[in-house]
Amino acid sequence: MTGCDRERRSQELDAWLAGLVDLGPGIALAAVGGLGRREQGPRSDLDLVLLHAPEIDLGDLADRIWYPIWDAGYRLDHSVRTPAEARRLAGLDIKVLLGLLDLRLIAGDQELVSELRACVLGDWRGLASKRLGELSQAATERARRFGSVAHSLEPDLKESAGGLRDVTVLRAVAAASLTDVPHSKLAPARELLLDVRDAIHDCGTSGNRLVAQDREAVAQRLGIGSPDDLLRSVAAAGRTIEFAADEVWHRVSLASSQTRWRSVHRRAGRVPIAEGVVVQGDEVVLALDARPEVDPVLLLRAAAAAAQSGRRLSPHAVGRLLVESGELPVPWPADALAEFVTLLDSGPGLVPVWESLDQAGLISKILPQWEHVRSRPQHSPVHIYALDRHLVVTCVQAGLLARRVARPDLLLIASLLHDIGKGSGGDHSVVGAEVASRICDHIGLDSDDRDVVVTLVREHLLLPDTATRRDLDDPTTIAAVHSAVGNSDTLDLLHALTVADAAATGPGAWSDWKAALVSDLVQRVHGALAGRKSPDRPDLGLDLGGSGIEVTIAPASFGWRLTVLADDRVGLLAGVTRVLAAHRLGVHSATSQTVGKRAVAALVVHPLFGDPPGIKQLRQDLRAALSDSKILPIPVPELRGPIVPPSATVASAASERATVIEVRAHDEPGLLHRIALVMAGELVDVVAARVSTFGAEAVDVFYVVDASGEPLSAAAATALCTQLVAALKH
To answer: Which of 578, 625, 574, 572 lies closest to 594 in space, CA to CA?
Structure first.
């Protein structure tokens, strides 16, 4: 689909609609919406207005127009108005006003349409300064409801921020003549979104959302390489529109306050804030004597000054920097690197300044590797941003932690680069470390600092993965992290990067539970780096003598801490998890230890939904189940559509005292019990467990030994993995 196809479709619809009835003087059939703009999609609604002079009785004329349209299978949004009624409604409803700004005659009295359009436009220009706030609030609300085209995996091409609705709003702002709108940049972005929408319609969908199952067909129809290439192109177009809208609203705000500002700051003029950089009004501009062609660091200096002051770079300044800036020498001089780090350490002011440079192509000019991550989608549902925005927001979050580390500059650089390897194939941490090494050389870091940044990029997932998937009481776990980070300063940097990365990912990426586990791991590794030996097992403060079953339940910061003390036997965890599944309790973590003939299982649990069970009832059910006197039914999950098959693998060299089995599966009630039941059936004892859920995916890790307390043989471990996969499939 192209603009030519839309023009042809509009012409054909115009001709057909005009031929439905003969319209005399004082009556006009007009189009608004997509047809009014000649943007009609294959399955879009027809938006029509039947205008008539007050003295004319239409009789059944409207029905003779609408019914053939319905009979032809079109969805119709229609109204019958006098010009005065339409004008009055436009004054009350901003949506009606936007539609009438696109009013276009199809058949009948041209003068009727022209007069109404002129009146509505005049009213709009007269009241725009008061009503633009209404438009801006509506745009903010749409963004809240529909997200952003640039950062959504299934964007609504019309309603999401950066979508076609925003283009329509910008047309209205331009019609008000209050500020310039960058039409040259908007046009290709708008055309791409219209092409994608038309291809979606041709695939049989009447809406405007680009859903996952349609991506491949849409990409093929448009001749775009792959579904990911399509999503990236759509994201780039959405970013262009969203950035243009953001800039326009900013300039509207400046225009509305200009008179007041001049009266208060008449004598302020241009205030210098850096060499060659001044503040004028509420924007940062270049000084009159600035010479970007002989001062290549001016680009970074101006950006840093603007971001640090919480202001924007003016479009004119960005344009000058794009056209006139000289090439930075490679490696960068020390002052360029210093300004770059200052820019990254600007907090929330970084995002709009970085985006203005990025939209102009200046980021890719100074960092060529950046082009690889621009608008790249992230398919994990926990991510709320496209890849490049995620990296920038990670810098914002890292700035909040800068005073906790010895080298905040290296933290900020690593934050910008930690996911730079995504989309290159292979392990993105390993690939990213190689790319980061080249970038560090490019920007002028010395070899020691480069090595620290490379370590941070390569190991940026080490702490959360280890804390949630390994037994922190196992010396092998602590030794592995110790070896990877090397020293305490790097460990602190990695900890800060982990927190910043999670905060920039989205609310689903972090929790009190995960934060506590990561902090616990960091403290243990700090102890190891200082030469302190951790005990093999923590003292649970329990008397492991005696007999019978004891159950204690205490509140924890993220649920309950449940401790079960019983005679040691294989299947103890299976019995406990059956009761938890019956009560719809999720498990955050689980450990166990055995002393003589007694075993203790310690779990942190939380209600999956609804009210938690009573502690007394839970204690009774646990005692009954472990005494084999009561079997509680487990909720059976509803049938699901196709999901990725489960997997069970052995994590080699993860522990010297146990075999480590990692199970991945779609999360559902009773999953942990089914896993524990298989292990009990294979006479395998679970000595520790780490249970994690990411969205709908469970990643559970178990430290297991055989009946003699030794790690499993290779054959036994393989057989156990096979049994687990078979059980979870059924």
So the answer is: 572
